[in-house]
Amino acid sequence: MPDSQNNKQALVIGGAGGIGHACVQYLEQQTNIATVTVISRNSINSTCSKTTGIQVQQQNEDSIRQVCQQFPDKHFDLVICTLGLLHDFETGLSPEKKLEDINEQAMLRYFQVNCILPGLWLSALVNKMNPKDSQMVFLSARVASIADNRLGGWYGYRSSKAALNMLLKTAQVEYQRRAPGCQLIAYHPGTVNTALSKPFQRNVKPDKLFSPEFTVQCLFKVLANLPDKPPPFYLDWQNQGISW
Question: Do the Cβ atoms of 14 and 83 come closer than 8 Å?
């Protein structure tokens, strides 16, 4: 983010997860950030005076609209949406290894969390962004790349994150009319040591398993050095472009 102003307003959606919490802590330390609003299912216990937590037990269209009604005078300079689902052992949800593993309920759940909810935030926030200079980041994944898919598997996760990417590509067209200075970013953070990746870390090299704090540092380096071309952007933690 450019640091020429010291009154920037940030919003973190999913602020209790590993990456979301690290984002909140990072933003609290930045002198150019005046307010940090955090959306989370759990209460936010922050001692920072600039941080306000909004607890939302169940995110859906109504609750998202109600939250955004609390921002009548806000124009956010930065939004980071960390919503994402890869597995849920309580319900038996796990990435598919073969076509026979695909089932309706799992696919619906993947799309609800990875695509529909971010899409609802995109819709609800279009009039809440700084129209001159702002950024919206949505956590995507390299495995969402259609062009780069050579391994197959993980049908629900891949497809729902690819659908998220298409949402961002499509929404950027309308954002360019309604908030022309707002840049949409699909961001691949790498493999991060959080609950989302925990069951799949066995084959990850130690130097490729990142802490949430390192991941957030990389994210903000990327945001400060976005490519000199029209958005949206699909980038990894090294600021390398990914084929849509």
Answer: yes
Q: Which tens digit of pLDDT belongs to each residue from 80-104?
A: 999 999 988 788 899 999 999 999 9
Beta-carbon contacts of 17 under 8 Å, excluding residues fewer than 6 positions away, are 82, 194, 195, 196
Q: Specify whether the CB–CB gap between 172 and 126 falls below 8 A.
A: no
| Model pLDDT for residues 138-148, shown as the tens digit of each residue | 999 999 999 99
Candidates 183, 186, 175, 159; CA nearest to 241 is 186
Give the separation between CA 159 and CA 107, rounded to whole angstroms: 9
Structure tokens at 228: 């000199």
Owning domain of residue 199:
8-236
Residue 204 is assigned to a structural domain of this protein: yes
Place of tokens 């958005």: 231
- Number of domains into which the chain is organized: 1
Q: How many residues does the chain have?
A: 244
The answer as to whether 243 is a domain residue is no
Rounded to an integer, what distance in angstroms lies between the CA atom of residue 95 and that of residue 216? 26
* Dist. CA 241–CA 227, nearest whole Å: 9
Largest CA distance in the chain: 54
Nearby residues of 29 by Cβ (< 8 Å), 6 or more positions away:
none
